[in-house]
Specification:
The protein has three domains: about 210 residues, 3-Layer(aba) Sandwich (Rossmann fold), CATH 3.40.50.12780; about 160 residues, ANL, N-terminal domain (Rossmann fold, 3-Layer(aba) Sandwich), CATH 3.40.50; about 120 residues, GMP Synthetase, Chain A, domain 3, CATH 3.30.300. The longest helix has 17 residues. It contains 20 helices and 26 strands. By secondary structure, the chain is an alpha/beta fold.
């Protein structure tokens, strides 16, 4: 194991951490990119050469000090190297979600006043290109980039930067534009010290081996994935990237990472695949047989790529307790955590030996919590953001008089200090009976049904709430009549436990899944309630007045 205290005493930044490991373990693999038929591996030494050459090129652009440099790419080695090069040159990174439209990209570039942009791995840059104003562009030939200066030409032509900028704690490191389930994205300003602090806390709570492996697939433009990668860098570990969605499972199985981070929908997808190959009745039978159950559990964990994972985390949205319990039966423990862009992911988490299903765990080191009269969670920690970029009024509104950040989440502690999130302040809605409803706990109950992929409980302007759902692959394998009975049975089982005004009146089955492309989820797969309401609210009364209990929208 790594001598944690010894290393942390030496690290004041990500640049510090990288330089340390580059010198100590130059030949160790740092970044691994999967392709269709091969892998590209960059050692710490090889990555360091590229990072310093790109940093040198950025400085030669003659930009003002502390300029903002945008980064538009899916997860790949060049994302990590670009981020480090930007920091090494003394600039500030502006990560952009790779799924944004040209309009969304332009909005962030203009608002952030970005002076240049690095473009990496993308699915459809042709449709996004017009969103980029007339600023210097670096693109990566390896991923088909042919705009502006190529990364590869820079590596061939430039000298390595010798005068490396070593950031101070209070230096602005990045501006992260929130994916936004409501309203327009806001630019969250985080310092170098914030990321250093979050990484130090990860090191203290995670019992990882030396040079741990991490599989990076959730957007690096999101604070959580970036914080995990930053933590892995502090450990001197290696980060592997999948080639595509189609090769995701194979790539994950090959790497067998030491830590895995997912959102609830990923774990639902894993469950679907397992049950497709091994139906629940047969799985339960095999797990009931001594000795056989150990073999089955090991095979499943290995096939998923989780055989070495000592910490398997879920965050970004609530995960169903029934799903976590189901994974326990196959020997996989999912630790649910809680954090936000604004608190640099340092809030609460469950840990090995301290894991209470249904909660997001206990407060992490340095975290202080209080609750408003409405039950809203307010947080104070050592790595809170410094405000929203160019938005002083909005910034002032989200802090109370003691400097605590208003999270917008509603929650409560139990007698052991475990926090439960019970909803979002803005997600609450009022039926036409004048009763307020918090949808999150109801959604979690309904999501126990494995025929359901996504769910959003709504009810503004109608007497009782209704559940909008999309169907999972398991559900799609059933006949319409079977699916009707399954969904209706869920409502019959759940309604007795709900207050009278909370009881679900109808289930409406949507014809297509909600995703980033149709605007119904964020890049981190959180459902955008406002977008669903805007499109479907005019139909609520019609659905409510329909005789059927389960409605299939055409």
């Amino acid at each position: 194991m790594i001598q944690k205290n010894e290393i942390m005493n030496n690290f004041n930044s990500s640049i510090d951490a990288f330089l340390y490991w580059e010198k100590k373990t130059p030949g160790n693999p740092f970044l691994i990119q999967n392709f269709e038929d091969h892998q590209m591996t960059l050692s710490y030494s090889e990555a360091g050469i590229e990072i310093r050459k790109v940093a040198s090129y950025l400085l030669k652009l003659g930009l003002p000090k502390k300029s903002h440099i945008a980064l538009l790419s899916k997860n790949c080695p060049h994302w990590i190297m670009a981020d480090l090069a930007i920091s090494m040159a003394g600039f500030i990174s502006i990560p952009i979600y790779p799924t944004l439209t040209s309009e969304g990209i332009n909005q962030i570039l203009m608002h952030s006043e970005s002076k240049a942009i690095i473009i990496g791995k993308l699915d459809d840059f042709a449709s996004q290109k017009e969103g980029i104003p007339s600023i210097p562009i670096i693109s990566v030939k390896t991923f088909g980039g042919n705009t502006g200066k190529s990364w590869e030409d820079i590596i061939q032509q430039e000298e390595e930067l010798s005068n490396i900028y070593l950031p101070e704690n209070d230096d602005l490191r990045t501006i992260i534009y929130t994916s936004g389930t409501t309203g327009q994205p806001k630019g969250v300003m985080h310092t170098n010290g914030n990321f250093t602090k979050s990484s130090s806390i990860f090191i203290h709570i995670l019992n990882l081996p030396k040079n741990p492996k991490f599989f990076s697939y959730l957007p690096l433009a999101h604070v959580a994935e970036r914080a995990f990668c930053n933590g892995i860098l502090f450990f001197g570990g290696q980060i592997t990237f999948p080639y595509s969605l189609e090769t995701f499972a194979v790539n994950l199985e090959e790497i067998q990472p030491d830590i895995f981070f997912g959102v609830p929908r990923i774990y639902t997808k894993f469950q679907e695949k397992i049950l497709e190959n091994l139906p629940q009745r047969k799985l339960s039978l095999l797990l009931s047989i001594p000795f056989v159950n150990k073999v089955i559990k090991k095979k499943i964990k290995t096939k998923l790529g989780l055989s070495n994972a000592s910490f398997i985390a879920s965050a970004a949205a609530p995960i169903s307790s029934s799903l976590v319990k189901w994974y326990n039966t196959i020997g996989i423990t999912i630790q649910q955590g809680y954090g936000m862009t604004e608190d640099c992911c340092i809030s609460h988490t469950n840990l090995s030996g301290q894991n209470k299903i249904g909660t997001v765990g206990k407060a992490l080191e340095g975290v202080k919590i209080k609750f408003s009269e409405e039950g809203e969670i307010l947080i104070l920690n050592d790595c809170l953001f410094k405000g929203y970029y160019k938005a002083p009024d909005i910034t002032a509104a989200v802090f109370d008089e003691d400097g605590y950040f208003r999270t917008g989440d509603i929650g409560e502690y139990d007698h052991e200090g475990y926090l439960t999130i019970t909803g979002r302040v803005k997600d609450q809605f009022k039926t036409d009976k004048g009763k307020y409803i918090s949808p999150a706990p109801i959604e979690l109950q309904i999501s126990k049904n494995t025929d359901i992929e996504q769910i959003c409980v709504v009810g503004t302007g109608i007497p009782q709430p209704i559940a909008l759902v999309t169907v999972s692959s398991l559900g799609k394998s059933k006949s319409k009549d079977e699916l009707f009975k399954s969904l209706y049975q869920s409502i019959l089982e759940i309604n007795p436990s709900l207050q009278k005004h909370e009881k679900i009146a109808k289930v409406v089955v949507m014809p297509e899944e909600w995703n980033v492309a149709n605007g119904f989820t964020t890049p981190t797969l959180k459902i955008k309630r406002n977008s669903l309401e805007r499109v479907f609210q005019p139909l609520y009364k019609t659905w409510f007045n329909t005789d059927q209990n389960v409605i299939f929208k055409s």
